[in-house]
Write a structure and sequence with these properties.
By secondary structure, the chain is of the alpha/beta class. The chain has eleven helices and seven strands.
Length: 235
């Protein structure tokens, strides 16, 4: 997720520094987006904002090296804001949960905690910013953080079904992706139920498809996916 944010910020922020646990990914990402890879976490202390994207059990160790950073953006899953604030008592701490579309400046970013005007502007480059109570982050993550994978699966399935009747696979995917993009814009203005009704004329092919989805438990499957994600996050 940090890599997706970095790609979205490329060309929009003055400088980005990266470090990792020895995987080499920091160097690769720095080369890709025009940043700088550093060898030690402590070298990030010179940053104006630290984007914290580590495994939650590593929070304490990383914080010990970076007590001087003025601002922290935490991407740590299932880690409440107050726990990160306790680890960085002298920093302004913001909890952020983005989704992968930040890479193309169309992400959704749920935010809790301190949010200066400068940070809001930087996050706004990446997409749509929504301020939420920290207590709602798990539910929000299941809805907007995990759902790109579910939507991608739906696109893949629809496109694949189209190829069975002779469409080229690339063309089928293009048709579904562009339809999904247009539908998303339409859903900004209309309720999902109204869109369904507008497309599904009585006795028509869309109504037949919706009936098939109902028989196969389409809605229930997506609801189950959200519940499963929540259960996993909450242990």
């Amino acid at each position: 997720m940090a890599a997706a944010m970095a790609r979205g910020w490329s060309g929009h922020v003055d400088r980005m520094l990266f470090t990792d646990s020895g995987s080499g990914r920091a160097a690769g990402l720095a080369e890709e987006v025009g940043g700088e890879a550093v060898g030690e976490n402590s070298e990030l202390a010179r940053a104006d904002v630290l984007v914290l994207a580590v495994k939650p059990p590593m929070l304490g160790d990383v914080a010990m090296e970076l007590q001087d950073v003025p601002a922290v953006v935490s991407l740590l899953g299932a880690t409440p804001l107050d726990r990160v604030q306790d680890a960085f008592p002298h920093a302004e701490v913001t909890r952020v949960m983005p989704n992968v579309a930040v890479e193309v400046h169309r992400g959704v970013l749920c935010v809790a905690g301190g949010l200066s005007g400068e940070l809001r502007e930087a996050l706004g480059v990446l997409g749509h910013v929504v301020e939420l109570p920290d207590s709602q982050f798990d539910a929000a993550t299941a809805v907007m953080g995990c759902s790109p994978a579910y939507l991608a699966l739906a696109v893949e399935a629809i496109a694949s079904a189209g190829t069975v009747d002779g469409l080229d696979s690339d063309l089928a995917r293009e048709l579904v992706v562009e339809t999904a993009a247009g539908t998303a814009e339409l859903l900004r203005e209309k309720h999902p139920a109204d869109v369904r009704k507008a497309v599904a004329s009585p006795g028509g092919s869309t109504e037949a498809g919706l009936e098939a989805l109902e028989r196969e438990g389409g809605r229930e499957a997506f609801e189950a996916a959200v519940r499963a994600s929540l259960e996993k996050m909450r242990g």
